[in-house]
Every structure is written in C-alpha cells, then in structure tokens.
Amino acid sequence: MSQTELKGKPKEERHDPFIGFLIDNRDDRAMMASLRRGLAQPRCAEVSRIVQHWLSEDSPRWLEDTYYSIAPLFGLHHDEVTSKGNMGGHFRDLCDDPSDPPSNVERRFMQLLASDANNLDDALRQAMSLLKSKGVAVNWQRLLNDVGWWKQSADSRDRVRLDWSRKFWRTNRQPNQPTNQESIS
To answer: What's the Cα-to-Cα distance from 6 to each of 83, 105, 150, rounded to whole Å?
Structure first.
C-alpha cells in the first residue's frame, strides 16, 4: 500500500518511513527543537524544511496535514518510543488501576475523543504533554496512521475513536459481565 492510499482499514498498520526518519534522528537536538517550534505554528519554516522532503507533488492533503500534526508532537515527546498500543492504551498506562481511571485522565481522554479534524492538533498536544510528563511511551507509527484516518473522513475518525476507546476502557472481565454503574455516570 502506498502512502497515499488509505481507502479502507488496513489489515496491518502501514509503516511510514517518515516516522522511521524521526526516530533515527531523535538525538539530533537541533532538529527536535525545530520540530517543537511547530507546536505554536505547525506550518512554520523550520517544520516545513523537514516535512516537505517526505511529501511528493501528488501527496494528498490529509497526508500533508498528518505529517504537520505529528512532527511537532514528536519533537515534544521523542524520548519514549514503543511499537505497541494506541492513544487509548497510552492513556490507560497513566492509570494505576485501569478499571478505575483517575477523573483527570479520563477527562483528558474524553476531550481527545471529542476532537474533530480541526482541533485534533491542540488536543494531541495536551495529551502528548501529559504522556511525556509521566514517561509513557508512544507508538508513533500507529499515531501517524490514526491521525491520518482521523483527518480523512468522519467514518474513519469514528473507527479510530472506537479503537482508542476499546484500549482505554475495556478490562479483563468476562463477556457480558456488568460494570459498576456508579463508575460510568
């Protein structure tokens, strides 16, 4: 699958060489500082200098938007990298007891889920700051894929929301076993 194709949910996540490049260069302090400048202005010259090398003339707009979303976040939180999980799982890692997440973590996660394509970058920046402060590793390859889906359409955004929700709220209880209703309200 080419980087411009994302028509249906892939059987396995695509590997994007842009993330490999970022990971390979995460010890380059000057590059990470340039990427962080994009937190305030995502399409600033410092970020464009890096991102535009990875896009072709016919790259779709959602892919360009995705690269511009991910690059500054990576500059912010590049020390902890994993190849497992998604944002729901990363937020779950913030919880001592995943079956009873702290209200502040759950509130932040719900704000992230409530984001649309236009305010996703702000919600992700806040989420990444929280994950960094707690030393939670991020699956950047998966995040790039999920953000790409999020920016494509409402249907694909809903699939990502559902995937993240499953990882955050599901526990290891038996099927059809009720939860404590008081914790849901």
So the answer is: 20, 31, 11
pLDDT, one tens digit per residue, over 134-146 is: 999 999 999 999 9
- pLDDT reported for residue 3: 42
> Are the C-beta atoms of 66 and 60 separated by less than 8 Å?
no
Sequence-distant (≥ 6) Cβ neighbours of residue 5 within 8 angstroms: none
With residue 100 as reference, give the H or E element that holds it.
none
Q: Which residue's structure tokens are 């842009």? A: 18
Joined together, the tokens standing for residue 65 give: 């938007």
According to DSSP, residue 117 is labeled T
| Rounded distance between C-alpha atoms, residue 115 and residue 161, angstroms | 10
For the chain, the structural domain boundaries read 17-169
pTM for the complete prediction? 0.85
Q: Is 169 exposed, middle or buried (0-12, 13-18, 19+ CB in 10 A)?
A: middle
Residues of the chain with pLDDT under 70: 1-13, 172-185
Rounded alpha-carbon distances, angstroms, from residue 83 to 17, 55, 74, 142: 14, 24, 14, 8
- The CATH code belonging to domain 17-169 is 1.10.520.40
81 secondary structure, DSSP code: B
